[in-house]
Amino acid sequence: MSYSSISKQYKKNQIETASPKQLVVLLYEGAVKYIRLAELATEQGQMDKVNTHLIKAQDIVTELMNSLNHQNGENAIASELETLYSYILNQLIQANLQKDSVKMNAMRHLMMELKEAWASI
């Protein structure tokens, strides 16, 4: 069994056994990873890879938005997070269109802060 297949199996097991909080942290980690990969691709002039990585990050942010619970009396928190996710998504789209590494970097740092906040809960 190759390292790649072992790594994929480990990741699959990690996701399948994760709590809802852990899944959110994993989503943040994925977004951070893809934004960083887009930044590196920008530095290397690989614009097709920038697009691919930022679309994956955008999909993750969209999933975070879709997973918000607006019903359990936490409407204020969910609404605030939805506004923040909407801003991040918009900035990632603009970063992709403009191939703007400054916006990518800012959104990566914002996602890292959110990940740390969720992990500390």
TrEMBL record:
<dbReference type="InterPro" id="IPR036584">
    <property type="entry name" value="FliS_sf"/>
</dbReference>
<keyword id="KW-0143">Chaperone</keyword>
<keyword id="KW-0969">Cilium</keyword>
<comment type="similarity">
    <text>Belongs to the FliS family.</text>
</comment>
<dbReference type="InterPro" id="IPR003713">
    <property type="entry name" value="FliS"/>
</dbReference>
<keyword id="KW-1005">Bacterial flagellum biogenesis</keyword>
<keyword id="KW-0966">Cell projection</keyword>
<keyword id="KW-0963">Cytoplasm</keyword>
<keyword id="KW-0282">Flagellum</keyword>
<protein>
    <submittedName>
        <fullName>Flagellar export chaperone FliS</fullName>
    </submittedName>
</protein>
<dbReference type="Pfam" id="PF02561">
    <property type="entry name" value="FliS"/>
</dbReference>
